[in-house]
Amino acid sequence: MATVASLFPSQAEASQAIDAMAGTEFASVVTDVYEGDLADDVGEVPPIGIPAGGSILGGASPRAILDNRLTGLNDEELSSYLIQSVELGRGVLVVADVEDSQAGALAAFFRNHGGRTSTER
Question: Looking at residue 55, what is its pLDDT?
Answer without folding.
Answer: 42
